[in-house]
Amino acid sequence: MDDFQKLVIQNSRDHLIDFCLTYDKHYTVNWHHREIANALEEVEKGEVNLLIIEMPPRHGKLLTDSTPILTKKGWKTHGDLVIGDCVFSPSGESVKVEAISKSDSADMEVEFSNGEVIKCHKKHEWVVYDRSTDSERVLETEQLLNNKFYSGGRSRFQLNNIKAVEFNEVEQPLDPYFFGAWLGDGTSTKPAITSEVKDKALIDRIPYEVIGTYVHKDTGVPTYYYSHQNIIQTIRGLGCYNNKHIPDIYKYASRGQRLDLLAGLIDTDGSTDKNSRVRIVTVSKKLAKDIEELVRGLGMRPYIIEQKPTLSTSGIQGKRVVYSIGFQPTMKIPVALKRKRIKRIVKQDRIGIVDIRESKKKEVGRCIQVEGGEYLAGTMLVPTHNSTLASIYFPAWFLGRNPDKEIITASYSGDLAQDFGAKTRDVVGSNQYKAIFETKLKKDTQAKDKWKTTKGGSYTSVGRGGATTGRGANCLIIDDILKDREEAESMTIREKCWNWYTSVAYTRLEKDGAVIIIMTRWHIDDLVGRVIAKAESMGKKYKRIRYPAVSVDDEEHRKEGEALWIDKYDIDRLDDIKNVVGPYDWHALYQQNPIATELQEFKREWFRYYDDKDLEGKDLYYYGLVDLAIGKTETADDTANILIAKEKNRPEIYIIDIYSGHLDPGETIDYWFAMNAKYGSKFVKVGIESVAYQKALSYFIIQEQKKKGIYFDVVELKASSKKELRIRGLIPMYRAGVIHHRPTYNKLEDQLLTFPGCIHDDQIDALAYLPQILDKEGRRGHKVYKRKQF
Fold it and tell me: What is the pLDDT of residue 91?
């Protein structure tokens, strides 16, 4: 053994990450893995006795059953499927889930002619067309492998094509053809569609009355305005105002309704060539992906081409990326324009199997059984739940350094816990491990859930509620003790989980033993929430590692708004996930900021929106609200400056502007002088909380007014109640629909939706003074610096 090899082995013994990289050459390391490994090393050294790791799915540990599955009610994760749910078969018809299997290994990879690779068990069954026998057969992966499945550039075994999935017909907010045409060539803030004169058939197809037409003076192209009531309000309600995309109510409608929507898109932003191939062009990446999903759901095979900004033939330099969605129709699409009609329906080639191989990375999954045996999934295989670093590699490394110590691991199910045990056992028994450590497995005790070392150490794995009698623990590792949101929201299960932890698991801990809890958060009252509360009440130290998928602050390794693991999940991908899973699961699973649905106080359906045109002609008066942050550290709240406008004799309130960040007092002062200059005599006053550091800002504004010779009223606001009570004072106003947002106020809405559990509340804390600032007489103890007249 040369000096370099000796150094590698020594580093692997000393450092967990080096051990992972030496043992598994394909192990991928991001900065957050190193931080977690450093914390786990502190546990092994006895420096940390309670370590809590909160991470989003697939960022160092994989979430069981997280594959998206299309159901009759839209997308659902595979792990959330229950017996009786309706998924789709290749025929497009819905089929019921009849059974769900326990976890098993996914040790094979099947590659298809379209480039997709699916991991599966060697006994996984496929319904394939066998070209050699001209027949359909049901074969296992292992059987396919043992046959000549690919030769001469052709696949022997092929999968049958799928048909359009069929959802129920639903009442849609707007006619689907109109909505598709509006998505294509409509004005994003108006009930208007622009279309050439020769395409009048498009306009005639729309079942709404045209009340006006504007013809562009240079191009001569008309824009048609519609009279259908509440079109824009409906578009706002769909979240499409100035934000074109296809909402779920249109994605998951009947086949006819989806085809009408697609026809509207083709008649406006689409084209059809002589072979009836369709191409739809858009500059919206989000809309492009929605169209791709819409077309795929209709049984066709779309693709997206991304074109960078180019110079046009007329010499105009483009500024935006263009997305082209192309596909070959397999059915008639009811377009209105003759030149865009589908004249040729082609039969799609089957997708062939081009390679079958052993997976380099062994994984675990589970299957569902459905009526008829086949169902559609994004990957046809459930992803593994594999907490490799903390639940597999760390125990192996720990026992390598401490072969006489004992480890207990626990998870929500015995099967999952046994899988961790088997994987850790296999690591300890491997040749790579033996080259690093002297720790050996005891030959007569090598079960998945219970095994020992030759030095008296042991490893035990149990499911939640399982007995640990007769076993001690120098290290207790608890990995995802709650299966899903349904379990997390059950008080009964949370109580059982806590009682098991306190009366069974924790009692096995040896003196100076350590507890490691790894959880994706579901609920504020889950095991992590209770353990932290207990530790703090007892003054016990603990280490908490908390990684939101998207940073909410500037951190050492990333800025606010940046992804945790950009190489695996960039911001675009995370945005897609957020749109699919919804705010509850997004904040809980991905941001580690769980919201208990029964505790959510502000509702998204209460939000009302406006744009600048809605303010025209209104008699508005402007008010300022300031929540001044004391610190400028990375974890401190921002300073929030909010400008609101109120109609003179109406209750409507408009949030005009939000200026927030780690601002110094000078930046805040300059902002309010700028607002005064902009709105003049309509700018009534600025309210600032009357406490300590914040109160001083009022003084500096007055001094600056004297210097500039510009005066406006400054009101000191009294914090007469707790912050939470003040914020709750906004609830009646939101419920009544009198507060109006701009569509871009994402941070404000996130704080409202996650209140009272939000990590930061600077913007809603400032807004909570709204009732006080609107007190015209400056009552309720306010001190008012009156505007001076000269």
Answer: 66
Cis check: omega of the bond before 756, within 30 degrees of 0: yes
Pair 501, 447 in one domain? yes
171 belongs to a structural domain:
no
Residues 638, 679: one domain? yes
The CATH number given to whatever domain includes residue 640 is: 3.30.420.320
Nearest to 771 by CA among 726, 724, 740: 726
- 275 contacts: CB under 8 Å, gap ≥ 6: 328, 344
Token pair, residue 765, equals 């804390």
Same domain, 363 and 433: no
Amino acid sitting at position 697: L
pLDDT at 3: 79
Q: Are 657 and 642 spatial neighbours (Cβ–Cβ below 8 Å)? A: yes
157-159 and 351-365 strand pairing: antiparallel
Give pLDDT tens digits for 285-320.
899 999 988 988 888 878 888 887 765 544 555 678
Residue 777 has pLDDT above 50, yes or no: no
Residue 256 or residue 138, greater confidence: 256
Q: Give the orientation angle of helix 414-428 with respect to helix 394-401, to 10 degrees.
A: 50
SS3 state of residue 547: coil
Sheet (strand 222-226) strand order: 192-194, 222-226, 210-215
pLDDT at 512 over 50: yes
Q: 492 exposed, middle or buried (CB, 10 Å; 0-12, 13-18, 19+)?
A: exposed
Q: Which residues of 400-409 are buried (b: 16+ CB within 10 A; e: fewer)?
A: bbbbebbbbb
In sequence order, which residues have a C-beta less than 8 Å from that of residue 256 and are 6 or more positions away? 169
Q: What is each CA distance from 34 to 19, 30, 420, in whole angstroms?
A: 12, 7, 21
* Cα 394 from Cα 387, distance rounded (Å): 10
254 and 335, same domain (yes or no): yes
- The CATH number that applies at residue 314 is 3.10.28.10
Domain identity same for 84 and 183: no
Confidence class of residue 736 from pLDDT cuts 50, 70 and 90?
very high
What is the overall mean pLDDT for the chain?
80
Which of 377, 165, 335 shows the shortest CA–CA distance to 251? 165
Q: Are residues 705 and 736 in the same domain?
A: yes
Mean pLDDT of 528-554: 88
Identify the domain boundary among 530, 546, 562.
546
Our separate counts of H helices and E strands in the chain read 24, 36
Among 339-348, 437-446, 770-779, top mean pLDDT goes to: 437-446
pLDDT at 12: 92
Residues 6+ apart with CB under 8 A from 646: 620, 621, 623, 652, 653, 654, 774
8 Å CB contact between 653 and 592 = no
Q: What local confidence, expressed as pLDDT, does residue 787 receive?
A: 42
pLDDT level of residue 178 (50, 70, 90 thresholds): very high
Q: How many domains does the chain have?
A: 4
Range of the domain at 709: 604-785
Single-letter code of the amino acid located at 762: D
* 189-191-192 Cα angle (round to 5): 95
Same domain, 218 and 149: no
What is the token pair recorded at 603? 């509702």
| Helix (H/G/I), strand (E/B), else coil: 654 | strand
How many CA atoms, within 13 angstroms, populate the side-chain half-sphere of residue 495?
3
455-505: per-residue pLDDT in tens?
999 999 888 887 776 678 999 999 888 876 678 778 888 899 999 999 888
| 572-599 per-position pLDDT tens digit | 767 766 765 666 677 777 888 776 555 5
Sequence letter at residue 703: Q
Q: How buried is 204 (Cβ within 10 angstroms: 0-12 exposed, 13-18 middle, 19+ buried)?
A: exposed
Residue 730 makes CB contacts below 8 A (sequence gap 6+) with 602, 739, 764, 767, 768, 770
pLDDT band at 411; cut points 50, 70, 90: confident
